[in-house]
Specification:
Number of strands of chain A: 2
Strand content of chain A: 5-15%
Oligomer: homodimer
Largest sheet of chain A: 2 strands, antiparallel
Order of helices and strands of chain A: HHHHHEEHH
Structural class of chain A: mainly alpha
Radius of gyration of chain A: 19 Å
Largest interface: A-B, 64 and 64 residues
Shape of chain A: elongated
Chain lengths: 153, 153
Amino acid sequence: MTSQQASGIAATDSDDLVDTLVQSAFATMAVLTRIAAEHDLSLTQLRVLAILRDRRPRMTALADYLGLEKSTMSGLVDRAERRGLLERVPGAGDGRAVDVQLSTAGAEIVDRVHDTIREALAPMTSELGPAEQRRLQNLLRRMFPPRSPESAA
Amino acid sequence: MTSQQASGIAATDSDDLVDTLVQSAFATMAVLTRIAAEHDLSLTQLRVLAILRDRRPRMTALADYLGLEKSTMSGLVDRAERRGLLERVPGAGDGRAVDVQLSTAGAEIVDRVHDTIREALAPMTSELGPAEQRRLQNLLRRMFPPRSPESAA
DNA sequence: TATTGTTATACTCTATAACTATA
DNA sequence: TATAGTTATAGAGTATAACAATA
């Protein structure tokens, strides 16, 4: 029984694409939030670690990417650093800059979480056949194209 | 120029369905969070108001639905009630129960936010043709079926 | 002067534990 | 006893404003 069934709150009938997108986003985020919490991470902390997986950005770049204030970033990095998940290192070439990188422990936990997320979403994705999965991915990517520096005008 | 382009953080190449789903969910949530903030609402407050749009649930039902503790619910309802967005009313038939309902002001704001969300997501959905939109909706609904009390075993 | 980052402060969100009132 | 809800407390996430150090 889901929490909704327990709560007696029913889904509405209005069901256009926007509603479906929003509901799917909440369902996906609920999975991510739950798995992050199982590893004592907030969703934001998990995002930070995930970004650091293959990058070592400046504090400012990290804040920009996440859409957060630099002061918020300081707090997030403080707490993650205190837990030994990441490290601050002097930014190359600029005496003011601070780069952020994963620690070994941080890299391990983000790998584990990544695997767990894939397992947790597998029951959903496996509702679709291989061709349908490709089609869904193509449709979503057209709506939400991956952002990259090369696409700058 | 997007914040990512400014930040110099590039998307990775690994791009299976799970990654696309997660990225799409974050992109969608970013839109919702931004629009909620423009109306001085947190995402959670917006969810509360959206649920109340066509329902008048108990405190407990609301907390269950959102996956929050009842004490958290008390705080959320406190702040929303203080702002005049909703009202507590005695629950029918149980002297302990409290039902929650939108105020007129709350109903107005949730309608406005709802419209704004549709407008904000329109550029994305309109990347797809009508048949593609139907296909995407069907695929997503198969992965994330709408929860309803009737589906209980 | 402008930029990078931190610190101080305040508010929201969240959970746990203890409590009151009702069932 | 069990359930519905609130209150007290604590910690995380967030923003704004003021600051220090570097460019």
